[in-house]
Amino acid sequence: MGLQIPALNGNTANNVDALESVFGQTYNETLIHQLVTRYLAGARAGTKAQKTRSDVSGGGAKPWKQKGTGRARAGTTRSPVWRTGGVAFAARPRNYEQKLNKKMFRVGIRSILSELLRQDRLLVSDAIVPTSPKTKEFNAKLKDIGARRVLIIVDKIEANLALASRNIPNVEVIEAENLSPILLVAADKIIATSAAIKRLEERLA
C-alpha cells in the first residue's frame, strides 16, 4: 500500500492516496525556518518614521553667540541633544521582504506537509464543508476533532464555509492555492478536502 492521508472519521475506506514526492519528503528544519521567517518579515509594515535634525522645522538661528556666554557652543536648537531636536539615528520607512525562489518555497511546503502527516496532524474530509451558512452546524463538526487550532484547506472557499467559520476563534480557512507556512506550522490539526489534496499535488509535485 502506498502513502495515504487518513480520514477524519477514522474509516480507512475514506483514506486518500497521496504522492510520495509531495507528502513523503524528509524534514528540512533549516529551510522551513527560512520559509517561516520570510513570511513573518513580509508581513511587517515597515512604515515607522522619525525626523532627523534636517527634518525638524526651525533651528536656523544660532541660539547664542559662539563665545563669551560661558555656555557650550551651539549652532542650532534642532540638534539631537536638544529637547526640541531631531533624532540621532532616525527610523526610516523600509521594506523587510526577503527573497525566496519558487523552488525553495515548494520544497519547504512539501517538507511541512510531510512532517504534519507523520505527526498525524494532517487529515482528509469532504464532510467538513458545511451544507448551510450556520455556525452551529460547522461548530458541531469541529468538536469531534478535539484540537485547539484548526486549519481547513479547501480547493475553493464557498459562501457557506466562509459564513459559518468566520465567527469561530482559532479556526482558519484557506484555499490550497494560497497556502501559508505560518498557518500550517501553527495549527494543531489540518483538515483538507480531497479536492484540496489534488490541488496541492498539482502545485507542489
Give the number of helices.
7
Could you tell me the strand content as a percent range? 5-15%
- Quaternary status: single chain
Low-confidence stretches: none
Question: How would you sum up the major sheet?
Answer: 4 strands, parallel
Summarize the amount of helix as a percent range.
25-40%
Would you mind describing this structure in some detail?
The structure is a single chain. α4 (135-143) packs across α5. The protein contains seven helices and six strands; from the N terminus they run ββαααβαβαβαβα. With 205 residues, it is α/β, with parallel strands linked by helices. The longest helix has 17 residues, at 102-118. A four-stranded parallel sheet has the order 3-6-4-5. Strands 1-2 form a two-stranded antiparallel sheet. The protein is elongated, with a radius of gyration of 27 Å.
Chart the SSEs and their pairings.
Blueprint: E1 4-5, E2 16-17, H1 20-23, H2 29-42, H3 102-118, E3 122-124, H4 135-143, E4 150-154, H5 159-165, E5 171-175, H6 181-186, E6 189-192, H7 194-204
Parallel strand pairs: 3-6, 4-5, 4-6
Antiparallel strand pairs: 1-2
Helix pairs in contact: 4-5
In short:
The chain is α/β, with parallel strands linked by helices. It is 33% helix and 10% strand.
Descriptive key words:
alpha/beta; 4-stranded parallel β-sheet; two-stranded antiparallel ribbon; 33% helix
